Amino acid sequence: MRKLALIGLLFATSAASAQTQTAVFAGGCFWGVEAVFEHVSGVQEAVSGYAGGKVVDPSYIRVSTGTTGHAESVKVTYDPAQVSYRQLLEVFFAVAHDPTQLNRQGPDRGTQYRSAIFYANEEQQRDARQYIGELEAKHAFRRPIVTQVEPLKAFYPAEAYHQRYLDQHPDEPYIVINDLPKLEALKRAFPNLYR
After folding, report:
1. How far apart are alpha carbons 95 and 194 in whole angstroms?
2. Dist CA 184 CA 194 (whole Å)
3. How confident is the model at residue 164, as a pLDDT?
4. Is-contact 147 117, C-beta < 8 A?
5. Residue 14 Cα to chain centre, angstroms
6. What residues are paired with 119 via a beta bridge?
7. 89: left (phi over 0), alpha (psi -120 to 50) or beta
8. What is the mean pLDDT of the chain?
């Protein structure tokens, strides 16, 4: 009986994970981007890491040199029955970062802080390009959107001390100045998605 219950639990867990999808976004320092997506209803996990470069298994110190090609990124695991990829794009462009800043976000400079969407499949690529086109057509920003749309080749989770950084350091000046306002903006702009 116990064995059957365990098999049922494994099946249920497998079925639940089969219903999730992932998206990878880069928009400056990953602490704030991760925190924003952690507060989006339907997102099951947001993990800070690195994507877009050539170096295998990069470290924060190495990525910070700007020579690896990697960008600080966030892998978002979400339930598409609760939140769509389109809604994640809307959050990314509206509150997670400024898509008009080339190779920087706020005080952070370098290609490792670039704005990018790393697509996992053709559907994500099409949706990302289409949404950027819509934003440009309605002149949603005063300056041109510089967000790169690139295929996801690999995602490397960042070191443990970077994960859920905002939750662990809410009073740190960098967080107070740069990241807490993003959460307030999420709450105001997307009240139905905020949790």
Report:
1. 12
2. 10
3. 97
4. yes
5. 24
6. 151
7. alpha
8. 92
- The residues near 110 (Cβ < 8 Å, ≥ 6 apart) are 64, 66, 103, 104
pLDDT tens string 112-142: 999 999 999 999 999 999 999 999 999 999 9
18: amino acid identity, one letter:
A
Quick one: pLDDT at residue 92?
A: 98
Cα-Cα-Cα-Cα dihedral sign, residues 44, 91, 63, 21: positive
Q: Given the residues 24, 29, 33, 74, select the one marked as catalytic.
A: 29
74 phi/psi in degrees, rounded to 5: -135, 125
Instruction: Please report which helix (H) or strand (E) contains residue 15, including its range.
Output: helix 2-18
pLDDT tens digit sequence for 62-79:
999 999 999 999 999 999
Q: Is the pLDDT of residue 97 over 90?
A: yes
Instruction: Please say if 29 is a catalytic residue.
Output: yes
Tokens of 101: 């800043």
Q: What is the DSSP string of 29-90?
A: SHHHHHHHHHTBTTEEEEEEEEESSS-SS--HHHHTTT-S--EEEEEEEE-TTTS-HHHHHH
What residue type is assigned to position 103 of the chain? N
* pLDDT tens profile 5-22: 333 434 434 444 569 999
Domains of the chain as residue ranges with CATH: 19-189 (3.30.1060.10)
Compute CA distances 25 → 67, 116, 139, whole Å. 20, 6, 22
